[in-house]
Amino acid sequence: MKNLVVISGAGISAESGIQTFRDANGLWENHDIMEVASFQGWLKNKELVLDFYNQRRAQVLSCLPNEAHKGLAALEKSFKVSIVTQNVDDLHERAGSTSVLHLHGELLKSRSTSDPSLIYPCKTPIHLGDLCEEGSQLRPHIVWFGEEVPLIEDALNIVGQADILLVIGTSLLVYPAAGLIHEAPRTCKKYIIDPYIPDNIPSDFHLISATATEGLQKLLNLIHD
């Protein structure tokens, strides 16, 4: 069974109604991204950061997987599918995908501010004064700008074993995730699905200019030929 590795981004979840992380102005609900998605922002205003992620968590819980999520899950019948996602929602899992690595963390988890290994399920708001078992404030289990990406080595290993690589719903502008495509074997078949194909995509990629759902249908015809 061939290894199909998927690198997914915000575009696949946008079709479920989840807003992309930032708009063209680099703002989220009139907040500068660094105010709500960096460790410096956390130190400056913890309550603002918690509220930002509490709202996003509630939004994710109100959304459902779309046909693209379901289509990727269905591919497990024919391929060994490994998903490396930049998304912090759980829509891949809810659609039925069984191997999902979240590069940038998970919105439905919290973690200790003193011990990053203390991670807890979280479907309710996090408030100031909510503590881990060691007595430290809880924070969202999210990789903020400027923080290390602890699972990047695992992601590199997964991509390095791909027979087929699919990039879907991401413009590949955020590093280190954007560098993952260069780790795929030279013989690997490579595809990208996105309405706006970025200029920096290597020439050995097959380009499918479409939304995630539309593009996935086109991809199925190619990989099953």
Can you put this structure into words, describing what you see?
There is one protein chain. It contains 8 helices and 11 strands. A hairpin with a 6-residue loop joins strand 6 (105-112) and strand 7. Strands 5-4-1-9-10-11 form a 6-stranded parallel β-sheet, with helices on both faces. By secondary structure, it is of the alpha/beta class. 28% of the residues lie in helices and 22% in strands.
* Overall number of domains: 2
CATH architecture of the largest domain: 3-Layer(aba) Sandwich
> N- to C-terminal separation?
15 Å
Q: Into which percent range does the helicity of residues fall?
A: 25-40%
- H/E series, N to C? EHEEHHHHEHEEEEHEEEH
- Strands of the widest sheet, in order across it, are 5-4-1-9-10-11
Radius of gyration over all CA atoms, rounded: 18 Å
In CATH, what is the homologous superfamily of the largest domain?
TPP-binding domain
Strand segment count: 11
| Number of separate helices | 8
User: If you average the pLDDT, what whole number results?
Assistant: 91
Cα shape: elongated
CATH C-level class of the largest domain: Alpha Beta
